[in-house]
């Protein structure tokens, strides 16, 4: 990632107005998610944290696009595997994830419950699994 990126402008295409959910937003999110592929998780999370991209990913949980919500949940499930990321972003993510458990489809509810379990909000033996 280039050093010329400014934290406040990073990935702005994807996150300026997540409610508009354009194809460019999805493509931008897909590009970000390549940073946290399994073997790249720790370094990718550091990059996302450094450029302040995790809060906008959390904001996508409130998007009107189910596809973007699912991708954001999947990203957060990976990101929250790291204790430092859980500690830093748990309070920001908790309510949007809880909202998905109440209004999402069954697959999203299950994934949201797993994220809440990672955040120690929901027991791992919950009926959501």
UniProtKB/TrEMBL annotation:
Signal peptide (from-to): none
DNA damage in keyword set: no
ARM repeat intervals: 52-79
Swiss-Prot/TrEMBL keywords: Repeat
InterPro entries linked to this entry: ARM-like, ARM-type_fold, Armadillo, U-box_domain_protein
A Pfam family: Arm
Keyword Amino-acid biosynthesis among UniProt keywords: no
Protein name in UniProt: Uncharacterized protein
Source organism of the structure: Hibiscus sabdariffa (roselle)
């Amino acid at each position: 990632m280039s050093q010329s990126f400014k934290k406040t402008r990073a990935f702005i295409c994807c996150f300026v107005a997540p409610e508009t959910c354009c194809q460019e937003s999805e493509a931008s999110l897909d590009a970000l998610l390549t940073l946290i592929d399994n073997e790249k998780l720790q370094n990718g999370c550091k990059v996302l944290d450094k450029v302040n991209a995790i809060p906008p990913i959390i904001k996508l949980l409130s998007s009107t696009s189910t596809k973007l919500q699912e991708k954001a949940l999947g990203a957060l499930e990976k990101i929250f595997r790291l204790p430092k990321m859980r500690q830093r972003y748990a309070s920001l993510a908790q309510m949007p994830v809880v909202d998905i458990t109440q209004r999402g489809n069954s697959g999203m509810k299950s994934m949201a419950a797993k994220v809440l379990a990672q955040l120690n909000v929901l027991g791992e033996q919950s009926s959501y699994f």
